[in-house]
Amino acid sequence: MKTAGAIALVTLGCANAFVIPAGRTVVRAETARAAEKINTIEFELDKPKVVTMDSVDAGGKKVYCRCWKSGTFPLCDGAHVKHNEATGDNVGPLIVSGPKKE
Ligand code: FES
């Protein structure tokens, strides 16, 4: 099975997750309020941080949640739509596509 290679979804204490390709570093200044909990769905609370490793097959696509409201976290289930309507926010998923099939 041909894959696009491993990716890392890293949460940084905010409502975003980032895909960091191998060999690349992402630095982001974070100004979120420290007292505000993001992981309200209580996903993997037994771990010190939520990190998801995954890969995408050739011709495949995966859609990852960045709003922390999904019932299928870390995958998006569309819950961001209801969140955006209720709050005026504009969060949406991270969509990762694999390479085209040969
Ligand atoms: S459900 Fe969270 S981004 Fe879609």
UniProtKB/TrEMBL annotation:
Leader peptide range in chain numbering: 1-17
Domain annotation Iron-binding zinc finger CDGSH type: ranges: 49-86
Cofactor(s), by name: [2Fe-2S] cluster
The keyword Iron is assigned to this record: yes
Keywords associated with the record: 2Fe-2S, Iron, Iron-sulfur, Metal-binding, Signal
A GO cellular-component term linked to this record: mitochondrial outer membrane
Name of one Pfam family that matches: zf-CDGSH
GO biological process: regulation of autophagy
InterPro entries: CISD1/2, FeS-contain_CDGSH-typ, MitoNEET_CISD
MF terms in GO: 2 iron, 2 sulfur cluster binding; metal ion binding
Official protein name in the record: CDGSH iron sulfur domain-containing protein
Recorded name of the encoding gene: CisD
